[in-house]
Amino acid sequence: MLLGEEMMPINELQAVILSLLFLLGEFIHAHIMGTIAVVLSSMSRKATKYQEQIEIAVSTMKAM
Predict the structure, then answer these.
(1) How far apart are alpha carbons 9 and 16 in whole angstroms?
(2) What is the pLDDT of residues 12-50, one digit of tens each?
(3) Are 21 and 2 in contact (CB under 8 A)?
(4) How far apart are the first and last CA of the chain?
(5) Using 50, 70 and 90 to split pLDDT, how confident is the model at 3?
(6) pTM over 0.85
(7) CA distance to 1, 44, 58, per residue, from 18 (Å)
(8) When comparing pLDDT for 1 and 53, which is higher?
(9) By CB distance 3.0 to 4.6 Å, which of 14, 25, 26, 39 could disulfide with 2?
């Protein structure tokens, strides 16, 4: 319902209400997508940091 699929307003009041619901649905959708992007970015950053630590440990062991 919040994404506006197959909804047709019959009068002006319904058109206004549906427009507001469409906007609300898009804000919710954008918030969810933004949160997912932040989580994926954080995971990528942690993986990169872990890989750098592994590379430092390997190079130190080779030097010994």
Answers:
(1) 9
(2) 998 898 889 889 989 999 999 999 999 988 888 888 888
(3) yes
(4) 64
(5) low
(6) no
(7) 9, 39, 60
(8) 53
(9) 25
Contacts of residue 16, Cβ cutoff 8 Å, sequence gap at least 6? none
Give how far Cα 60 sits from Cα of 5, 47, 49, 57, 64, Å: 59, 20, 17, 5, 6
Sign for the CA dihedral angle at 25, 31, 33, 35 comes to negative
**pLDDT score at 46:** 85
**Could you please report the per-residue DSSP string of the chain?**
-TT-TT---SSHHHHHHHHHHHHHHHHHHHHHHHHHHHHHHHHHHHHHHHHHHHHHHHHHHHH-
